[in-house]
Amino acid sequence: MSTAVKPSLLPEVEAFLGRGRLASFVGGKAMGSENDNSIATTDPGSGDKLADVVELTAKQVDEAVDVADAAFKQSAWATMPVNERAALLHRLADAVEKHKAIIGQIESLDAGKVQSQAQGDVQNFADTIRYFADMAQHVNPRTTLAVKGHEAWTVRQPWGVCAFIFPWNFPFLLIGWGIAPALAAGNTVVIKPAEDTPLSAIYLAELAKEVGIPDGVINVITGGGASVGSALSANTKIKRMSFTGSPEVGRLVGEACGRNLVPVKLELGGKGAAVIFNDVDVAETAQKLAGAITFHTGQVCCDATRWLVQQDIYDEFVNQCVDQLSQVKIGHQLDDQTQMGPVVNAKQRQRVLSYLEKGQAEGAECLLPGGAAKVEGYDGHFVKPALLAGSLDNVAAQEEIFGPVAYLAPFQTESQAIEMANHTHYGLANSVWTSDLARAARVAESMIAGNSWINAHNVFAHGVPYGGVNLSGVGGGVLSFETLMDYYRSTSVVRPL
């Protein structure tokens, strides 16, 4: 299960990491920290330091927002013809695609993501930018209203500065999902990447300047959440806010935005269920769910981490899953033979291991033990896949672990399966697995979540809204027309006749 191939870096990646301390990027230029503070970002697969990144002060965060606000009011970005803005965004997408190998390797190193998955994220970023750039060209900025006795219409305009705080599990992809509709609508953005994974965001901001995006339209500020993130969410010049992360921090961001009456979009993780009926191909379904739980080492908020299996195939399904997960090749994320890389840091590895201990202490049966993994030649944050089973009241079945751990429980009837799937405070994404498509639709519609998938998990198609309910968030989803419309404000104009 271990690999020991030492990866080689692209020359462009070595040059990027070899600059010394990496700065934030605001108003088209580097911004260093006024107090000379920095945060080290490390390779989760080796433990080696990749780079020092500046940590801005709260005052500098406010300065970055001022720059974005000035760019919105003074540059041509918000007022240029939408097709010209779309052309610039397409140019950015083209540049990202051209540099996909470089950005993918930076992302892989920084987040611990298997390199092929990281490059897939980069391609998704480019596709998302193009999708919203094209869609924005079909938005009618002026809509005439048929109102008796009045001449009336509405006009749509961009809001202004939109702020984004992103997590460490999908640093580059989620930037694309977040900023693409905001930029396409004519807003300017301030991006705060996670302190563990800031590198691809910095690279993107520099690339945006190279392709001709006006200075101040895309700004990246780096530092910790308690300092930089809180200062950003509290800034009164922000017009829209988006946060992806834990419910605990989401509450803080929501409170700060609430004080300023700023609309906020919160995507806060989940504890998804996969409901597996007895008419599935057991081996194929086990393979797909094993692939889902090991994708990016289980650090996926919408993943299926509760597997609810119809009783008469339960034992067979467990055996297939144990067999599949026992063969997963764990290794450094840049090794082409690796199927599952490390978790992002030592804290996250300890979190996964502690939940395995707490779950068993509360009575969970251990079907596959998991635990810390050793990879020859590397001192990384590696864990093995694990399977637990038992009561759904168990802490490991109720709380988000964010690692390659699934919790299994059997069910007898369809109604029982639905009740078990909804036995959670979260509500992000579930899936149902069956050859009976009528039943699949019935169950999918009955599960309390923002997303229900049929015979697949982790499905993200442009044009389909993606968002959560309950502890999984508020404020709508991404990847759809409705998302784009969130980034326009509407004014009604009326003249009595």
TrEMBL record:
InterPro entries: Ald_DH/histidinol_DH, Ald_DH_C, Ald_DH_N, Aldehyde_DH_dom
Domain of life the protein comes from: Bacteria
Record has Oxidoreductase as a keyword: yes
Membrane-crossing residue ranges in chain numbering: none
Record's keyword terms, sorted: Oxidoreductase
Keyword Acyltransferase belongs to the record: no
Pfam families associated with the record: Aldedh (PF00171)
Enzyme class, first EC level, given as a word: oxidoreductase
PANTHER family attached to this UniProt entry: ALDEHYDE DEHYDROGENASE-RELATED
Family named by the database record: Belongs to the aldehyde dehydrogenase family.
Protein name: Aldehyde dehydrogenase AldA
Gene: aldA
